[in-house]
């Protein structure tokens, strides 16, 4: 099954070159992790609060630290992803304990990621609306979980299909949304399997947090390690997709 083959290829490539993956991510991900730990330890009672309400306002430095943490994590995601794509597809190795910093490519990667994410979100919402029209009148509100699941899966599948343009941009092989969709035409089932395996890994890694329910330093460190695994796996999956559908092979 192609979806399983692509997922396995992404994982085995990372494990076989774990030393490179670590050298490529220690600096950018370490900086992001440091801001996350700083935020969690400085404001342990505020992190994760979605609504402060009228009687509760966050301290002056909290918002700025949240923004710093968000920016650091987004930069780490983009920096490592671009570096991993270029390493696997072009053989561009990090010379030290950080991937080469391609500022223009990182900025362009961000813009294209937002574009792909927005289009995938719209597709997912359209599927939710379409399924609601047909299923809810038949089964009532009990059909809503299936409706939402269908929309989510559709959005993720299209994200992966269009996501080919991200590693393409990273290696200077420009690709449009239409070209990415054409390259993955007829592979929706395989990509759906790949998406389910990827999200299964993410939720599997989160299970200890749900079971334990502990929010101390050990949990923070576990979340950091889990975040690195999810990040490098996501970059690896997109790389394997591009390598498969564009006829490229690992270096």
From TrEMBL:
Keywords from the UniProt entry: Membrane, Transmembrane, Transmembrane helix
Highest taxon, organism lineage: Bacteria
Ranges annotated as spanning the membrane: 20-41, 61-84, 114-136, 142-166, 187-205, 225-245
Entry protein name: Uncharacterized protein
């Amino acid at each position: 099954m192609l979806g399983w083959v692509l997922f396995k290829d992404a994982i085995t490539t990372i494990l076989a070159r774990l030393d490179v993956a670590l050298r490529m991510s220690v600096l950018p991900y370490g900086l992001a992790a440091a801001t996350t730990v700083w935020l969690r330890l400085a404001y342990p009672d505020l992190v994760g609060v979605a609504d402060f309400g009228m009687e509760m306002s966050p301290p002056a430095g909290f918002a700025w630290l949240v923004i710093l943490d968000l920016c650091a994590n987004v930069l780490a995601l983009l920096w490592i992803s671009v570096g991993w794509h270029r390493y696997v597809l072009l053989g561009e190795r990090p010379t030290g304990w950080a991937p080469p910093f391609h500022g223009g490519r990182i900025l362009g990667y961000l813009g294209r990621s937002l574009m792909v994410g927005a289009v995938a979100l719209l597709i997912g919402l359209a599927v939710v609306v379409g399924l609601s029209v047909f299923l809810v009148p038949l089964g009532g509100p009990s059909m809503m979980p299936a409706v939402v699941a269908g929309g989510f899966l559709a959005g993720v599948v299209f994200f992966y299909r269009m996501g080919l343009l991200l590693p393409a941009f990273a290696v200077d092989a420009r690709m449009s949304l239409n070209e990415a969709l054409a390259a993955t035409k007829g592979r929706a089932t395989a990509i759906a399997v790949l998406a389910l395996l990827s999200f299964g890994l993410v939720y599997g890694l989160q299970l200890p947090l749900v079971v334990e329910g502990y929010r101390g330093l050990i949990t923070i460190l576990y979340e950091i390690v889990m975040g690195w695994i999810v990040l490098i796996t996501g970059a690896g999956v997109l790389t394997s997709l591009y390598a498969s559908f564009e006829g490229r092979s690992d270096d």
